Fold:
Amino acid sequence: MCTVCGCGEGQIKIEGKATHDHRDHDHDHHHGHSHEYHHHDHEHPHNHGHDHIHSTVRIQDYGQGPAGAHTPGLSQARMVQIEQDILGKNDEYAAANRRFFNDRGILALNLVSSPGSGKTTLLVETIKALKDTLEISVIEGDQQTANDAERIRETEVPAIQVNTGKGCHLDGHMVGHALDTLNPPAGSLLFIENVGNLVCPAAFDLGEAHKVAILSVTEGEDKPVKYPDMFHAADVMVLSKVDLLPHLNFDVERCVDYALRVNPGIKMLQLSATTGEGMDAWLGWIKTTRQLALTGHPPAAAE
Amino acid sequence: MHEMAICESIVQVLEKEAQTQNFQQVKTVWLEIGPLAGVELEALRFSFDAVTRGTLADQAKLEIVETEGTAWCLTCAKSVAVQQRYDPCPECGSYQLQVTGGEEMRIKELEVN
Structure:
């Protein structure tokens, strides 16, 4: 079984290739450690050289710890204290991806939503609007099929499909592999379309600059409070399919209010990829954010 | 089922620690899980038993230490207790809360052989 994502052996496919040799593969990026994106509740100065995944490993004396007394001679049991984040491994891969993006001035956006929110349609329209001025590539995550990657390729930008098999989310490791194949150019824009799921992708950092949560008005307006982790993790919420609002009982104001409850800092956009309404604001946000990603990359910025 | 993936990650950490700290078997695992970590504890226990089967943590006991959710209320300018992400401030009712604790998902300690 895959020890990174928990899916069965050989279940993950990056467009046909089974990629399950985790221990032997090479990434051409470093699996280093970047501190700023780790979610630790404790603060400590990061000026000491230390191992990755914050492990303060020490062996304790017998008898310490919650298990209480251990009788010497009767049991060889000992207590080992390891303070490790359970998803530390994923965070390491995500940090490596993030470094890859930072080194090349690439803006990576992680698009998350439930299935059927119109992620791929929004993506296709976004690509059409931007591809003449920006280099764009796409990583598509789905449990099965390469349908979405094919839809993206019809717009003539490179796309790679990652099939998670039984897995319910993309993780940092899968994205690292996809980057090896996709090799997005410096100063480009990378969209990662996550598996349609409002639960698990919230917990798995991929190294993106921002998570963008897409919620269509054909869904319930209370989704932000039903799936609070996702809307908390996202920096931007896109309310999609707003052209359908006249036919629905969707209360936009209420939805916005719910989203602000779980994430007071979330930015809100309303658009319809079909009619083009609100697309300018979305494209404007992408361009501005991409400009920030270019900071410190003068050759690409001069384009 | 990302509790399953979490248990896979736990086993991965255990296997790595087993090499560096030289133990063969894990008898008990202590986890620290916050109410805002997005982890369903019952599902985690179920997955833990399933995932650890045949590994060095086969039959291991899982002890979960639940931590408290805390947030900084911008209106009250102080730390308050929260149970869920959409909880309002228990004192002033504002939703202007910055979560400060309760997102932990950490392996604290092991009993090993």
In short: The beta strands of chain B are 26-33, 61-66, 70-73, 78-81, 97-101, 105-112. The longest strand of chain B covers residues 26-33. Chain B touches chain A through 51 residues (CB under 8 Å).
